[in-house]
């Protein structure tokens, strides 16, 4: 018989000890497989081009952003690579006319901008995963670019060709 009168398997090991040993092995296998699957995601990293759009920013702030500046998600403390391009345009400001209609206008001393950056990450069906943080088009957050701090949104996400 496999279990003897004393509750030992093959007369050598207690049944409770065997169950505990199997449980420990099962937990080890579970975490081992889990680590292996997350490692395969990081193996598929690509260079991602992310564009960030800001409708209205003071001229003295946007003029501080330069190609080569480090990009950082200020709220999550996530590195978002480096600035590769800064496109500065007239500001976009919306105001209501006397007739109750919204009208687009510009504000003196303000600009809109598209900041382009490159970062290593993974594309997934809803956007990009950068350093374990998910980003999608329309995502709003505070971005540090060099020594400038801007409240903006993700404008575009693509893989560098």
3D structure, described in words:
This protein has 161 residues and is α+β, with helices and mostly antiparallel strands. It folds into two domains: 8-42; 44-159, no CATH class. Helices cover 20% and strands 51% of the residues. The protein has two helices and twelve strands. It has helices at 15-43, 59-62; strands at 8-9, 13-14, 46-58, 70-73, 78-90, 93-96, 102-105, 110-124, 127-130, 133-135, 140-145, 148-159. Strands 3-8-5-4-11-12 form a six-stranded antiparallel beta barrel. Strands 1-2 form a two-stranded antiparallel ribbon. A two-stranded antiparallel sheet has the order 6-7. A hairpin with a 3-residue loop joins strand 1 and strand 2. The longest helix is centred in the first third of the chain and has 29 residues, at 15-43. The termini are far apart. The mean pLDDT is 88.
Compose a concise summary of this entry.
This protein has 161 residues and is an alpha+beta fold. The chain is built from 2 helices and 12 strands; from the N terminus they run ββαβαβββββββββ. The protein is elongated and about 95 Å long.
Mean pLDDT: 88
SSE string = EEHEHEEEEEEEEE
Q: Within the largest sheet, what's the order of strands? A: 3-8-5-4-11-12
CA-based gyration radius:
27 Å
Overall domain count: 2
Shape assignment: elongated
Question: Treating each run of at least 4 consecutive H or I residues as one helix, how many helices?
Answer: 2
Helix content: 10-25%
Task: Give the topology, please.
Layout lengths: L7 E2 L3 E2 H29 L2 E13 H4 L7 E4 L4 E13 L2 E4 L5 E4 L4 E15 L2 E4 L2 E3 L4 E6 L2 E12 L2
Antiparallel strand pairs: 1-2, 3-8, 3-12, 4-5, 4-11, 5-8, 6-7, 8-9, 9-10, 11-12
């Amino acid at each position: 018989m496999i279990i003897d009168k004393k509750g030992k398997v093959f007369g050598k090991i207690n049944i409770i000890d065997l169950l505990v040993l199997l449980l420990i092995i099962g937990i080890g296998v579970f975490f081992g497989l889990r680590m292996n699957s997350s490692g395969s995601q990081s193996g598929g990293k690509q260079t991602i081009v992310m564009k960030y759009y800001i409708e209205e920013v003071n001229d003295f702030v946007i003029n501080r952003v330069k190609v080569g500046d480090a990009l950082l998600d200020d709220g999550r403390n996530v590195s978002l690579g480096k600035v590769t391009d800064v496109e500065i345009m007239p500001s976009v400001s919306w105001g209501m006319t006397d007739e109750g209609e919204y009208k687009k206008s510009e504000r003196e001393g303000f600009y809109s901008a598209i900041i382009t950056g490159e970062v290593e990450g993974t594309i997934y069906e809803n956007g990009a995963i950068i350093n374990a943080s998910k980003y999608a088009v329309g995502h709003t957050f505070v971005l540090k670019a060099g020594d400038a701090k801007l409240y903006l949104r993700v404008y575009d996400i693509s893989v560098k060709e």
